[in-house]
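Good morning C.,

I know you're traveling, so I'll keep this short. The sequence:
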Amino acid sequence: MTSTDQYTFTNPVEQYRMPQPDEQQQDGPGLDQNLAPKADHGEETYRGSGRLSGRKALITGADSGIGRAVAIAFAREGADIVLSYLPEEQEDAAEVAQLIEKAGRKAVLTPGDISDEQYARGLVRTAVKELGGLDTVVNVAGRQQTAEKLEDITSESFDQTMRTNIHAMFWVIQEALPHLPAGSAIINTSSVQAYSPSPTLVDYATTKAAINTFSKALAQQLAPRGIRVNVVAPGPIWTPLQTAGGQPPEALPKFGQQTPLGRPGQPAELAPAYVYLASAESGYTVGETLTVTGGMPTP
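The tokens, ready to paste straight into the viewer:
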């Protein structure tokens, strides 16, 4: 992959083109350290410019993938961060914390299961206590499990996807609202699956469409209070989620090739969208879904 910062004039077809992945599968939530080839989160390339100086952020799913890239970018833009992730992802999260601290910002590690209401609400209380307040909430954590037939989705699996992708977002935001001052930003994560759902991702795609609708309704409710709600909708992005049941192993060698750019996206390519929506420069952007799909069309 070409290593350039986000400001360098580059051909997007070639910028993050990676070696074709082999068939692979990870147990559990999947770890960045076991992903082959490695994903690019902007560790070597993201260059901050003080756009989030002094901000206090909570990021879910911050250990790997998109959440990891957002955490790195936010820190380099000047934010202190509470990172949420599963206990099994501790090693990945520790690496992110080191990068945040290297940028001169505070990292608060808070392992737990976001699908548990007590933990989800407790994240907000931790952020307020450890950061001295909260003004940015970024919901990235998600569950995606492929299933060829609807009959293959158990009630337990369906419920876990809903609790991880929808319930947790509701709990975190509801708990955060009393603490968010005017000027705060809430950024939720949808997907191209909300617009062009794959037949093997029925439950996941359903949650991503719901996130869009939830966010657009809430944005109108909170705008008069000076709190902005927006959404980022990624296309096919190379993360451990894809290798931990998100895609069939045999589909991975061609993952992302259906996009007009002909390649999957890297987490580093999502971070600037979240930075923009968190920063004051997007002050008139409310209830918007910013799609980052490699050219895959959305309404």
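Safe travels,
E.
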